Amino acid sequence: MLLRSVLTCAIFAIGFAAQGQSKKTSSYQYTVDLTRVANDRVYVELTPPAITAPEITFFLPKIVPGTYAIADYGRYVTDITAADKKGNKLTIEKIDDNSWKIKNATKLSKISYWVDDSWDTNMTGPEIFWPAGTNIEEGKNFVLNTSGFFGYFEGLKEIPFQFNVVRSKDLYGTTGLIPAQTGASPNTVKLEKSADNKNKVVDIYKAVDYDQLVDSPLMYSKPDTAVIKVANAEVLIGSYSPTGKVTAKQIAESIREVLMAQKEYLGGKLPVDKYAFIFYFTDKPVLSYGALEHSYSSLYYMPEMTIEQMNQQLRDFAAHEFFHIVTPLTVHSEEIENFDFNDPKMSQHLWMYEGVTEYFAGNVQVKYNLITPEQYLQVLQEKMTTADQFKNDVPFTDISKFTLDKYHDQYYNVYQKGALIGLCLDIKLRKLSGGKYGLRNLLLDLSNKYGKNKAFKDDELFEQITKMTYPEIGEFFNKYVKGTEKLPLEEVLNTAGILYKEEEKYQDFSLGIGNENIGVVPVDEKPKLQIASTSNMNAMGQSLGFQQGDILIKINGETIPDLGPEFGSFIQRHIMAMEEGKNLSYLVSRKDANGETKEVELSAPIVKVDLFRKHLLDFDPEATPEQLAVRDSWLKP
Ligand SMILES: [Zn+2]
Asked: How far is the CA of 325 from the centre of ligand 1 (A)?
């Protein structure tokens, strides 16, 4: 998964601008009717497998793999009924958000319910990570994360599923699943007779078990697709862009180059024969967006922009999600192999699942010339700076193990510090092996040693990796991943001939607000910038007189645009226009002592102030041949 919070992007824009039962042969038969939308809900019907227990629990998932957050999909199910063969109702009792107990279960012959979507409701409880959520936009778009539509019975997770999607003829389903049949006659399933049945068709899909079902999202919309062939793999791109700003063809061109590079990175072959990229673009303001990986697809929820505006981000996202095929989809611990959808156990190794994946996504781009080495150093610097905002006194293995509860607010650091752990390991391995063996070799070796159907024991991974590599790697894990010592960035980067400086003071103009001062809050359902804290504000911010809680409305009389592609250039423009002798002004909305909101104008003369650059990285022009050898093996193919 990859999550970008607008918060962090906004911070950057401002901060950097100045710079069971016994085995059965039976199966689940589901039908979801996309032509039958009522009150923003769709109808789902299940013909269950044979049940031998007198009482059984029916579950929707509490959580799904890859998200590391509670979803409680059962909240979106309403009007659930259970019936016997003759249509008589059986007793079905709700136990909690995600489970229902059915009495006289041996007689069960049908379950039906309505499902609301997670993308547009006022549901209380946890917000479902958007790329794992569900969307119902009648006639236009349906995002079927199957975990939100289909459930399973206690102890009956490992048997086949079939599901039929009833759709209107003009919609197309993008998915990594290979359909058993598409466009079948509506008579295939018993639909209620209605006048417009002639416009309906049925797509039929099969999954070997519930894990594969949940691993297979679908998006239905008017077709906008492209197919590309990369080495051995056929890659499908399906896109939904509400105002038509971007097309599947444009995305395909951009992704093709990334996949070609990833193929080389993984040793000349892609690890799948078929894969689908499923893109939903939103034209609404967003607080966060992201993507979620699956074995044969990935699903993207992103702000709608033109291909030029999003090219780099698209590549970063696609590279990240595709590399998840290596870990956790191939290399993973027992917690993930035997995934419990309703009583999840977390692994200690998010540094690898998310961190190494994110590291690879950047490293592949510099290795195969999609970005320059200078741009790559910038990518690393951003990760270091963002990581500074998170806890550094807790073992990273604990952040991972307790990511569902006490360290949930630290999750975003898996993409920052997690990737930097990957960076250190890669350079260390290359140094120790004389440039012959890096982190990608290690992950490929781990893939061969373990694999999709063979998990490692969570507590033994460090030991296993140490055995496969060097004692120094074991020491590294002990000190910096299991331990709480600060990552040895300077020492490690130095071996690759990179000069590192933790901090440098300089003087420049500033809009007065630094990383640690700003936050994003929803105002009238739109994300707005708010002063989160005034401590450590630079001299410009102090003289403007910001107060905690101020909502920023205007800069120099100009309304601040929505957080999106225009925002960065807006900030840049106002920085560039700064000169001594002029004034800088803000219009903020501020609550007074009586709790009433008033607009307040803040203004102060522009002066150069003391600022700090953090984590400066540079190529050492005097690097030794030994350092250059490590650098080349790290940055070149
Ligand atoms: Zn990820």
From this structure: 10
